């Protein structure tokens, strides 16, 4: 098969870091195979990079100004791999306004400032694609928007930050402390110098926000997403959880129940029998539950230059295939629905109902277990399992699993427990996820 | 949003069994949500069923002749859920020839007689979709054709027959014999009265054939797929494998290496550390390895009316979205490539190279282990691990794992071992898959 030069898709890349350069490398290295799949050549014609250390002037026009790409009349698609809000937002906005398609790997941009871009893309009839923004190389956006489109999505839950999952896996396998593993993750390049985005769950909340919007047909609502990090977890919590038949994962959970949407990122106990509980290391995994299909799971590499570029280029292939068929407008609405729903309400974290893991540090005195159980009973909270460990000579950890409880009630019960004379430290509380079973 | 009656996609269903009726139920039960995703109503206007026990005449034209659907000028898409080769092939052929799109759940039809249909669909510029034919509700065809399209696929491996996986799981969990569990699977409705298709791996070979064709860009080649069933496995093999750190799964494996394609279905030892080794019960799972993304896994329900209908309706939604945008031809080539490759050759099973689990039943006499090891050594086959079990008073099982070996050599070594006086039964041989690691 010969592909005519004239029938090519011209790509401009803004941001030539790992993902941007990985995208060019993948397009070049696999050009023949990609052309056989699309019937068209995908050609990088313009690259804007803050620092042009890499000489690719033989391949494409090179410069430092991303707006030059957004305004380049020869560019069909702008690939945004700069990250951050500015100038990324304005670059993407100008490209869309100029009638260009945009492919972005920028989860923060889509989750926090995506709505006007989604609307502009729709108005202009161009594609705004972001497969690489969620779960790296795993085509989970495509699964949600297309593969599972016959379903009403009831809930989804994902390990969507590889750094956090690496840290939790090391803590579990080797009994190491959080702070200790974090330093190693930084040395290995898994975690940023400022690890806040990863370990506080903000990065996961960005991805969850995007998935929830597609799943439920609602506008992007990052501010409604509850976020809790993994920094307070101890190797003891991970070991106790395992003793009870659970692994602790930093999950992003979105659920739609009776017209109420909940989106939350926090450490979560998951039964070791669940497949997702056994996704360890830097891997990502998302479970999606549709009303017809039931639960399906998608796992793989959630980060890395090549894996992320795989999704960027998949988006470019979609656009190239559309160009070959002379498609006027994108087939699939940007967020999966032709118009977002506005009839759903947001559940606050106090109103969720789930089971809880509690670790209470108490003086090793007679009657302390009865006192704790009494406070829980007073708030109508049943106990499902208890581990009482050896005393360290002075204090004793009491570990228990509660029945399903509204978080507001639990908070009151925990305040009462912490007020007990025999309880010497704040209670550690971790939510348990049973995946609707 | 109001959807105009005139702008609807008209569907005719041929075959009103579990999947056909599940498709109608899903389209009706989730009509509002689906219309919000497509911007168009998807309407079942004609149903052909062998036995019209179910009265749906208020909903659609009903009859017993599938060709009436294929020739109904009001039908845009024919859904083929009859199964089998005839009349399914001719019904699908006529529908395509009449310029209708076709959605089929018929894996045998696509795998064994798909090529002329693929070519006819291309000639007519219509869609021939078959997501539901592979791995039920898991959108793995979409992942292969689109989500991972940036990659050259190196290999894929799947648990793609739920019946077989249920049987192996029961044998593992409860130490039960194959024949015993099969009877239960039939009673539960998981296995057909004639279980050949499931337990001999033919059903899996159909699905593997389809996935391999998309993965490597080759024509559908069912006859080139090697097939071995699970009927010879014993609970002892499953227990010994576990002792060595492996689960036994009935895998479909496709690999492209140095221009040679291998496709094979057989019982396989997989390290328990692999996620796919922990997919138990009736579930399906497919691991796909792309050169850029690495390994991604897709798991979920591989059968059942609702899960299969989920994929049928996803295909209908793709077609509906294309209709809304006035798309003239399908965006994605039926088998993922604009033209199939013809430069790849097929590797026979004798030429594959892998590790093997061997169980040798020998007389409990001095020197038998040395004899066995000597024969393996004579053929250049290294031993990686050995378990020698207690004698049952007369015979002793010798269980071992070999190093990587060409299957042709192994066959010769096994013949030599079986010729030893002390070896009293045919050697049990199970392939080991290390997923390219």
Question: What is the helix content of chain A?
Answer: 25-40%
Mean pLDDT of chain A comes to 94
Beta-strand share of residues of chain A? 25-35%
The greatest interface between two protein chains, and residues involved on each side, is: A-B, 66 and 66 residues
CATH-assigned fold name of the largest domain in chain A: Dihydrodipicolinate Reductase, domain 2
Termini of chain A, distance in Å? Answer: 52 Å
**Which CATH class of the largest domain in chain A?**
Alpha Beta
Report the CATH superfamily of the largest domain in chain A. Dihydrodipicolinate Reductase, domain 2
Compact summary:
Chain A is of the alpha/beta class and 437 residues long. Helix content of chain A is 35%, strand content 26%.
Can you walk through the features of this model?
Two copies of one chain form a homodimer. Chain A has 437 residues and is of the alpha/beta class. Chain A has three domains: 150 residues, NAD(P)-binding Rossmann-like Domain (Rossmann fold); 162 residues, Dihydrodipicolinate Reductase, domain 2 (2-Layer Sandwich); 84 residues, ACT domain (Alpha-Beta Plaits), CATH 3.30.70.260. Helices cover 35% and strands 26% of the residues of chain A. In chain A, the strands form two sheets. In chain A, strands 7, 8, 9, 10, 11, 12, 13, 14, 15, 16, 17 and 18 form a twelve-stranded mixed sheet that branches. In chain A, α5 links the parallel β5 and β6. In chain A, α1 packs across α12 and α4 runs parallel beside α5. The relative contact order of chain A is 0.13. Chains A and B meet through α2, α6, β12 and α12 of A and α2, α6, β12 and α12 of B. β12 of chain A pairs antiparallel with β12 of chain B, so a sheet runs across the interface.
């Amino acid at each position: 098969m010969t592909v005519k030069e004239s029938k090519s898709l011209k790509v401009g890349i803004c941001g030539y870091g790992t993902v941007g350069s990985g995208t060019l490398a993948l397009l070049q290295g696999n050009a023949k195979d990609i052309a056989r799949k699309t019937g068209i050549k995908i050609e990088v014609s313009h690259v804007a990079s803050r620092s042009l250390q890499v000489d690719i002037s033989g391949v494409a026009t090179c410069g430092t100004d991303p707006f030059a790409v957004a305004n380049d009349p020869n560019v069909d698609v702008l690939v945004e791999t700069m990250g951050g809000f500015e100038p990324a937002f304005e670059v993407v906005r100008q490209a869309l306004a100029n009638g260009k398609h945009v492919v972005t790997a920028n989860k923060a941009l889509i989750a926090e400032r995506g709505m006007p871009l989604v609307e502009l893309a729709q108005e202009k009839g161009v594609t705004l694609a972001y497969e690489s923004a969620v779960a790296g190389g795993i085509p989970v956006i495509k699964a949600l928007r297309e593969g599972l489109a016959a379903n009403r999505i009831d809930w989804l839950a994902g390990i969507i930050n590889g750094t956090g999952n690496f840290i939790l896996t090391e803590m579990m396998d080797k009994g190491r402390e959080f702070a200790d593993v974090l330093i190693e993750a930084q040395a290995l390049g898994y975690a940023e110098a400022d690890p806040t985005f990863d370990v506080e769950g903000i990065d996961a909340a960005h991805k969850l926000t995007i998935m929830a919007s597609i799943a439920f047909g609602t506008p992007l609502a990052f501010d409604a997403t509850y976020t809790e990090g993994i920094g307070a977890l101890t190797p003891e919590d991970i070991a106790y959880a395992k003793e009870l038949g659970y692994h602790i994962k930093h999950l992003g959970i979105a659920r739609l129940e009776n017209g109420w949407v909940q989106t939350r990122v926090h450490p979560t106990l998951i039964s070791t029998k669940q497949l997702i509980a056994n996704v360890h290391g830097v891997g990502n995994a998302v479970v999606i539950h549709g009303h017809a299909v039931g639960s399906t799971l998608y796992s793989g590499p959630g980060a890395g230059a090549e894996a992320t570029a795989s999704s960027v280029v998949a988006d470019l292939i979609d656009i190239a295939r559309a160009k070959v068929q002379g498609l006027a407008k994108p087939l699939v609405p940007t967020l999966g629905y032709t118009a977002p729903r506005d009839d759903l309400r947001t559940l606050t974290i106090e109103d969720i109902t789930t089971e809880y893991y509690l670790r209470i540090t108490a003086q090793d005195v007679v009657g302390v277990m009865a006192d704790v159980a009494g406070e829980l009973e007073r708030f109508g909270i049943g106990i499902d399992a208890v581990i009482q460990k050896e005393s360290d000579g002075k204090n004793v950890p009491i570990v228990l699993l509660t029945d399903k409880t509204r978080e507001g009630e639990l908070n009151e019960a925990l305040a009462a427990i912490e007020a007990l004379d025999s309880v010497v430290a704040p209670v550690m509380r971790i939510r348990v996820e049973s995946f609707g079973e």
